[in-house]
Design goal:
264 residues; alpha/beta; Rossmann fold; 8 helices; 39% helix; globular; SDR_fam; NAD(P)-bd_dom_sf; 3-oxoacyl-[acyl-carrier-protein] reductase (NADPH) activity; oxidoreductase; 3-oxoacyl-[acyl-carrier protein] reductase
Length: 264
């Protein structure tokens, strides 16, 4: 039997801040359930007006929090509109006050309104940029500032969700591209703070927004003939924030079941 040396990565606090939670059937909710099962205490950011405006649904994050607390973990709910530049650092501060030092930041929030080159408004583009790019930068910055460079204190793991969809989804896709660059830069710029950053592109995940036509088309573009679900994203996040996943950093990972992969 082979024996392996212990991981050189210091154990991180089992506390995590997740943004963009909102609905129990969403990706962030699945990630929250997975991290709770792994013993994490959680701070959950949400913004109910987005769910109502874009998805036509009410936020049921209170029910999610009750569900998670039944597993024994602490859950802090932190509402906030990430378009406001004062909100991201205040969310991190509130999470730290409630849970202590944070070991993980998982950004699942987004602004996503379908529009194209010819009909996107300046106001919509600016809001996409503020929420998808600027807020992510400010969250990452505040998360990093909790650790002094060069100290023995463990840093943390940052995971951001992205997308490569752009056609007729211009402001969303363009700002997700910018998000990729800034998050991946963190692996290098924040290495002295022990922080590792990774971006996940999960491909099309049905959280209630897909029509039957979209669902069938997406499944047909996947070699296995089926779409992934929120749990497939959660499984990867759970691995990446763990000590076993610590060597994967500074990567844009396509965890999409081979969606739209060329057959060669």
């Amino acid at each position: 039997m082979h024996s392996y040396p212990p991981s050189p990565v210091a154990a991180l606090p089992r506390t995590a801040l997740l943004t963009g939670v909102g609905r129990r059937r969403g990706i962030a909710a699945a990630i929250a359930r997975g991290l709770a099962a792994d013993g994490y205490d959680l701070a959950l950011n949400y913004f109910e007006p987005y769910d109502r405006r874009v998805l036509g649904e009410d936020t049921d994050v209170e029910l999610l929090a009750e569900e998670l607390r039944e597993t024994g973990c602490r859950v802090e709910l932190i509402p906030g509109d990430l378009e406001d530049p004062a909100v991201p650092p205040s969310i991190v501060a509130a999470a730290r006050e409630a849970l202590g030092p944070l070991g993980a930041l998982v950004t699942c929030h987004c602004e996503s309104v379908d529009s194209s080159i010819l009909d996107t408004t300046v106001e919509s583009f600016d809001r996409h940029y503020a929420v998808n790019v600027r807020a992510t930068w400010l969250l990452l910055k505040a998360f990093a500032e909790q650790v002094e460079p060069g100290t023995e204190t463990p840093g943390g793991s940052v995971i951001a969700l992205t997308s490569d969809h752009t056609v007729h989804n211009l402001p969303y896709g363009a700002t997700k591209g910018a998000l990729d660059r800034l998050v991946l830069a963190g692996t290098h710029e924040l290495a002295d703070r022990g922080i590792r950053t990774t971006v996940i592109n999960p491909g099309p995940i049905d959280t209630g927004w897909m029509t039957e036509e979209i669902r069938a088309s997406g499944a047909a573009a996947t070699p296995g003939g089926e779409l992934g679900g929120p749990q497939t994203v959660a499984d990867l996040v759970r691995f990446l924030v763990s000590e076993r996943g610590a060597w994967i950093r500074g990567q844009l990972l396509h965890s999409n079941g081979g969606f739209a992969t060329p057959a060669v």
